Each structure stands twice: as C-alpha cells, then as structure tokens.
Amino acid sequence: MEILVCGGAGYIGSHMVRLLAEQGHVVVTFDNLSTGHAEAVQWGEVVVGDVLDAAAVDAVLSRRNFDAVLHFAARSLVGESVSLPYDYYRSNVAGSLMLVSAMQRHGVEKLIFSSSAAVFGSSAVPIVDENQPLLPINPYGRSKLMVEQMLADAAEAYGLRSVCLRYFNAAGASRDARIGESHACETHLIPNVLRSMLGAAAPLQVFGDDYATPDGTCIRDYVHVEDLADAHLRALHFLEQAPGAHAFNLGNGQGFSVRQVIDAASRVVGRPVPYQVAPRRSGDPEILVASSRKAREVLGWDARWTELDGIIESAWRWHRAQPW
Ligand code: UDP
Asked: Of 11, 86, 89, 140, which residue is the catalytic one?
C-alpha cells in the first residue's frame, strides 16, 4: 500500500513509519517538525509541511495514489491545552478538517486517527471500554472527541472509512533503541523518571499520594509504542473490508500505579529513584485502564509488551543513548 503518515516524525508516528516500511509499504511522512524530529524519520520519504496549509497538503497528496492516511499530527499536552485552547482547536480540530477535506478532493477514503483515552475524561469505572460515556475534561480531550464526531459524520455523508485509536499511556521505545520518545517539554511519568535518573531533569515529583488506590498514587495503563503501531497496521487492513467510522481503546489491560512505575524503574536501572511527593496535578483521574477487548475481537490485536519492567527497560535504553 501507499500510505501518508501525518506527524510521522513524532513519537508514535515514527514507530508507525518504521513498521510500514518494514512491511514493504510505500510510506511518506508529512510533518511540520514543530515537535517531531527529522532524525526520527529513517524510513521512506519526508515532506516538511503543516496540515493547516491547504496547498502543502494538496501537494503531498498529489505525489502518489495514497491508499490511506494515518493522522498523528497534533498537539498533545493536556496542561498546555487548558492555557492555549485556540492553539489546540486549531491544530487538532481545524488541522484534521483540512486534512480530511483534502483527502476527499484527492479521493483518499481511509483514515486512521490518533485519538486518546482523554475522550473519556474521569471515567466512573476503572476499566474503560468503548461503551463508556465520552466526557472529556480538558480542551485536548475535547479536540480529539470533536474529530471523532466529525469522522462519524463524514462516514455517513461521504463514505469516509475511519478508525479512531484511543491510546491510553503510550510508553517505551523501539526494541533496538533507534527511535523513542523525545519531547522538548516532557510531562509524562516514565520519561520524567528516567530523565531524572540521568540528571537530565529535575528530581521526580509524584503528583499526589492520597488517592483511593492501594498505594495512594494514580493508576494508568502503559501500552508499548510498538504495540500501538501494530494496532494501526491491523486497523489499516480492517478498513479494507469495513466501511464506516470505528473506535477502539488500546491499552495493555493492566493498571500500574506511579509507585509501581518508580519501583520498576529502580529495578531496571539498578538504583533507587529519588522523588518527592507533590500536590495532586489538576485533572488527573485516579484510575484509567483500558479494556482492549474490542480491539482483540475485531482487529485480532493484543499487547505483546505486557511486563512493566520490559516497557521501562526499552525506554531506559533509549533515554540512556539520548541520540537527539
Ligand atoms: N505523574 C507524576 N509525576 C510526573 C509525571 C506524571 O506523578 O512527573 C503522574 C500523573 O499525575 C499521573 C501518572 O503519573 O497520575 C501518569 O501521567 P502521565 O503524564 O505520564 O500520563 P497521563 O495519564 O496524564 O496521560
């Protein structure tokens, strides 16, 4: 297949580009490099441009007869979305609208969209399946939900085929440490733990230890980035025989607390993780764990990286090398 990957220079996008190329697909990355890294695109062609630039999107879509578009390009910091909502609605909602309109002009009828567990907000149940209410609690989550809704409308009106993949906590790096997570402004737990152990970041703060969980810290579902890439590939094949708009939750189905992540990191690195307990971070749900049953039943997908230590070890090898 010929695939356009918007945001292919980012964390999850670059693992996707690699998997597609390794599977023999023709892949073109389209990325404005605002948060992505040119070094991450080591497979296929790369075109620098922005999804908000209609002429640039038209130009890249004219290069080939693309079978599908995978859309990772977005802003993704929850806290930043609260202070800069226009930026988030512009990049994530208007950007997606520009992209799907251009796809329509070019006759590209399949899209895989990077959605997020943030569309559920603070779920009332600990294990979240696709039937849970969609009640995002911040502009980032709302921007993802708006696009999901737009894609459902587009399926009805124009026959656009789409899959929204709602990632829970993407984590880890490629098995060979060639690509991994690298954000100028890092807010995520695992990279913060590892960067603080490398002395590349301030000592870790644990945001709240008074939650109603067994050890008082928040519980999340850490899903390996290579497993996420695999889910996209399966979704791509699924769309060949499935019209309509679809959504799947993707997690490894197990919850780990912040303290369990810290303990696993100290086992992997071989020394204790220094940290201090800080106040709760606003907007953090207590527990968020995916039910990936639908993805298993419909896509035949299962997370292969289920051990927390293994996920953290892959991230550690990447962070220690610090190539970018
Ligand atoms: N967290 C923390 N210290 C950090 C970063 C995150 O205690 O430096 C906690 C955060 O409060 C949440 C969990 O780790 O309970 C996962 O946060 P992350 O930002 O990685 O992902 P989120 O679930 O917010 O998307």
From this structure: 140
